[in-house]
Automatic annotation (TrEMBL), chain A:
Domain NADH:quinone oxidoreductase/Mrp antiporter transmembrane: 126-412
Limits of the MrpA C-terminal/MbhE domain: 693-790
InterPro entries: CPA3_Na-H_Antiporter_A (IPR050616), MnhB (IPR007182), MrpA_C/MbhD (IPR025383), MrpA_C/MbhE (IPR046806), ND/Mrp_TM (IPR001750), Proton_antipo_N (IPR001516)
Membrane topology: Multi-pass membrane protein
Keywords: Antiport, Cell membrane, Ion transport, Membrane, Transmembrane, Transmembrane helix, Transport
Protein name, UniProt field: Monovalent cation/H+ antiporter subunit A
Domain NADH-Ubiquinone oxidoreductase (complex I) chain 5 N-terminal: 62-110
Domain of life: Bacteria
Signal peptide region: none
Transmembrane domains' residue ranges: 77-97, 109-127, 133-150, 162-185, 205-230, 242-264, 270-291, 367-388, 408-433, 454-479, 499-520, 571-591, 603-620, 627-647, 653-674, 699-717, 755-773, 808-831, 843-865, 877-899, 919-942
NCBIfam families referenced in this protein's UniProt entry, alphabetically: PRK12648.1
Location of the MrpA C-terminal/MbhD domain: 612-675
Localisation: Cell membrane; Membrane
UniProtKB/TrEMBL annotation, chain B:
Family as reported in the entry's similarity comment: Belongs to the CPA3 antiporters (TC 2.A.63) subunit C family.
Main subcellular localisation: membrane
Subcellular location: Cell membrane
Stored Pfam families: Oxidored_q2
Regions crossing the membrane: 6-21, 28-51, 71-92
Topological type in the membrane: Multi-pass membrane protein
UniProt keyword list: Cell membrane, Membrane, Transmembrane, Transmembrane helix
NCBIfam families reported for this sequence: PRK09094.1
Protein name, per record: Na+/H+ antiporter subunit C
Amino acid sequence: MLLASLILVPFAGSLLAALMPENARNREAWLAFAVTACGLLVAGLLYPAVSAGKVLREEFAWLPSHGLDLVLRVDGLAWVFTMLVLVIGLLVVLYARYYMSPKDPVPRFFSFLLAFMGSMLGVVLSGNLVQLVVFWELTSLTSFLLIGYWHHRADARRGARMAFTVTATGGLCLLAGVLVLGHIVGSYDLDEVLAAGDRIRAHELYRVALVLIALGALTKSAQFPFHFWLPHAMAAPTPVSSYLHSATMVKAGVFLLVRLWPALAGTAEWNWIIGGAGVCTLLIGAFIAIFQHDLKGLLAYSTISHLGLITVLIGIGTPLAIVAAIFHILNHATFKASLFMTTGIIDHETGTRDLRVLRGLRHQLPVTAALAIVSSAAMAGVPLLNGFLSKEMFFAETALVGGDEHWWMSIAAVAMGMFSVAYSLRFISIFFGKPSVAFPREPHEPPRSMRFPVELLVVVCLVVGIMPSVSIGPILHLAVTATLGANTPEYDLAPWHGFNLPLLMSVIALSGGVVLYVVLRRYFNLQQREQVPLIYRFNGAQAYESSMMFLTRSAQWLLQHLGTARLQPQLLMMMLAMLVTPPLLVGTPRVWTEIPLHEPDPLFAGIWVIGCACALAGAWMAKYHRLAALILIGGTGIVTAATFLWLSAPDLALTQLMVETVTTVLILLGLRWLPPRIEPKVLHLTIPRSVWMRRSRDMVVAVVGGLAMALLTYAVLVHPAPATIADFFLLRALSEGGGSNVVNVLLVDFRSFDTLGEITVLSVVALTVYALLRRFRPAADSASVPAQQRNTADPASKQTAGEQANSGYLLVAGIYLRMLLPFIGVIAAYFFMRGHNLPGGGFVAGLIFAVAILVQYMLAGTVWVESHLQLRPHRWLGFGLLLACTTGLGAWAFGHPFLTTHTAHVDWPLLGELHLPSAFVFDLGVFAVVVGTTMLMLVALAHQSLRARRLPGDGAQDYGIADGRDI
Amino acid sequence: MEIVFAIAVGVTFGSGIWLILRPRTFQLITGLLLMSYAVNLFIFGMGRLWVDRPPITPNASIDPLQFADPLPQGLVLTAIVIGFATTALYLVMMIGARGLTGSDHVDGEEPRE
């Protein structure tokens, strides 16, 4: 759990930070500080084991069937990166406490920062490649949130979006690459992958894996041609930049390359892809950095260039180059984080980051100036500072590997060195010259605690620069041996190696850089140039925006030309697809007779003549005569129910009959709000030609569809039935399910999970109907009150609906049905009880009971029924679901799977022995849900009619009455 | 029997297709009702047609070949009940669309032509 706590604690802290009040700046900072310190403590505890060369692993089962486990793994490299993330994190937290303004919503900041820390540690500690990609994408996500922290600013939103699009797309490539790698190796476990280097390099998919993984790493580390997102990410608060964009997130890319070096490196492809991207990045980044006017912009491009340097070293791929790469990762993190923090201080104190305005700051900020000058010198590679050491190793490697043949590598290295000296000079120029008076704010030294992180980092730069082997030596050795293993080369970290080629290159770079800076400043108007010379046309951000615009436009074009918001064309396409696809897939079915067919029964044919006539007439009438159409279609429904009965499905017949009744009544309730539709004949309108065309087309589709369906049905019916699982159910229903009605046993026992899902759907639909209609006021009634009800001679015309039920219209029918209610209830109970052995069951009984209530509503009216009956359909729903679920869960108590049925044999005093299966209780739940669903829908619709009657004037009062009642 | 059953399914389904291609919400609802009859019958027909052989077993030792297939029946029973629920939902959408847009056209607005 020790390793897991390293990742879990930051995430827990993130959650806690999010819950704190808006202005709790100190508490937030303390929390973040404590979380990070806790991480450092754990990392410290790991040091003895790691320094002994052990690889610590913790595994948690995740998807063992797919060979995927959560693996946390610490070796020297991972430990060094963990320390990097945590130490810089600690300093950034301290710095951020003073940087963030009291007006900023700090809980969000610290919450995101801690989440990022957790994700980054996840990347570093992952021992499983798929898991690594998940954390990788989490860092993209959290960095998106952090860059867009000031989301009221357009540049922050744009920068965040750009960074996320680029890095997350890269992450997807990485995922694909990792999957290919896993396919090659046969495992996603990091240890196995690292051990399989030779096999991977020899595999035919090696190039695919390499390119995909490189895409992931290069986008994350802002390498050419994906470097453009980093400068735009500078819209983030400065602590974020100094954490993510100098020390951690951008280092994830190079970390991954170092991590996978044993598995992937050592081929020409590796050298050219990784090294090539690195060389381009290094030169372009350093060159552009000289011409920036924003301090953070300068640092961003400088970071790009330094990351390029690290990438080149990894691309070179010799063991010594890897040593230099890891060393430079650490060095760059220290000096760049401190420079970003200095920039934040300057911004904070003067109110600007513009290099054209800033000058003479050493007078107002003497300590900060001294610190910044030391770190810039480290960035430029001045001797006795840490930057010098790793840069000299870089020079030595390029000279050694390039040799005489690739001499351009040394030239490029020296050119990059010159550029970096030039932009470092540009950076420190803000401290010299006459003090400016044009600052938005009068600058002062920052609070001691805000400067402390910078001081610490600068001291590290100095100590490492002067005494490398004592200070950084052991730590570097740890990471290097973990990566290179047996290949670990001899290397010497001393600042002085005598007069040799790398030293000459350093001297040329330093002096050349100074000359370049002076020349640019004197003759090329460096301070005021708007564009970067030569390469300003190659604007990655512009290309990104253009491609995004192109994508959006294309999507719009496609939607406009291929999509439609209209329903009819969509349905037409669906119908056509349904007609065309099956013949294309399986060809036309062969229709022939193999089995003896049933003799057509004239009565059966007769009822279907009626059924078909009803369907056709209903289709014909549905536009102008809705009531007639509804009755006709109900006729088809009845014939369907009769067919089920005829063809040995009594349960289906019962259910169909009851559903038919309830559906018809519900639709009848809705008809009154549809607008009247008058036949064009009556209005003397001529129907346009286009409408006739459309109707003919639809008629053709309908006829062909009907024919196809008939043919298909016939083709199926004349084939002998294949062996099915029917025998299983038929043979076991009685012996194991305890019921002779196989369909019912199927529903409440064999497939009861299915039924549980179904009653859940029913409840959801009922609640949806209720929610949709709760605050809804329907359209005005289409028909006016009939003449009889308007006649004032009839006393009932002045009565309310409730009074009418007692002494008004339909009195005989109303009382008759009221008396019938208990009898229908008994019938429902009867069908329920016998369900397990004879046709019936929860569904049917529920529907019968619902119909009993339904007719009361129809004849007595909503007000009367609800003043006499407490229905509470919500409770029926809840009770039913609860009953069904607890019955299912009850099986667990006896050690059986969910929803296992148990049959109890109970001896009753009068009735004798009774089978009481637990499926019976389940069926009771089904019954309650069906009753509740039907009633909830009915009540929701019935209340619409109450509301519709009211005049518009008393709306507020009306809502109160209609919705306050517990229906 | 088979031929009558097949024609019944075809006619009901065809009427349903015609109705769901119509522009009014009520026509759409009735079309879906008819289509659901047809589809339920079709699925039911997958167990073949049996007259007077309901799947109700009198005792444990029976010949399964003498009974109708209970599985399509169970599936269709579920389908009927779910179909009822979705019809109710369509109905509410129909009422809602009419109340909110003032039109009973399926697109919520009268066609421009």
